[in-house]
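USER:
I would value a second opinion on how I read folds in token form. Give me a protein, with the fold worked out from its sequence. Write it directly below this note and I will take it from there.

ASSISTANT:
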Amino acid sequence: MKILVLGATGATGLLIVRDALAAGHSVVALVRSKEKALAVGLSGIDLVEGDARDEAALTRAIAGSDAVISSLGTAMSPFREVTLLSTATRALVRVMEAQKVRRLVCITGLGAGDSRGHGGFFFDRVFLPLLLRKVYDDKNRQEDAIRASTLDWTIVRPTVLNDKPANGHVRALTDLTTVHGGSIARADVAEFVVQQLTTEAWLRQAPLITW
């Protein structure tokens, strides 16, 4: 498959590109700067410069693609409003629908949508409300835009990310009754996300993934 990756220069995005190439896919990344993308190790793929919120840039980047992976992220923002994720995702949905590219796999996170309240005491009572509330408000808008689309989507909600080696034992859950926090390696998230390109196991669902 030919895959467009958004957020490819991030820590998880780099691993997604690596795993997609290893699985035999060809990869295009929409990046703000080709120079910076090469500096962080993005090689062996097609790079298109542009802003992920710009429909013209998205249209250039998505040409000929079979699917899109979005691993867009944004920094903590305790005071300023966050709109990047939802604005880019709404633009992406419009472009995908116009170009008839149906498969979208998008990473959000534990705390988005109905996974809120399952992060454990510190995450739910301190970290999210004080440091991440505005980010997660935008993640919720991002998820709403995806759910309202006609696309074949999967939303992936990882627990707290770490940089440990992959262990290959990922639990994917939509019943969160017993979930109260957790963590997972970025490498396992990347592998799970790439796997979703060729399976319908979680089609139009939002699994939380954790160790």
Summary: The longest strand covers residues 152-158.
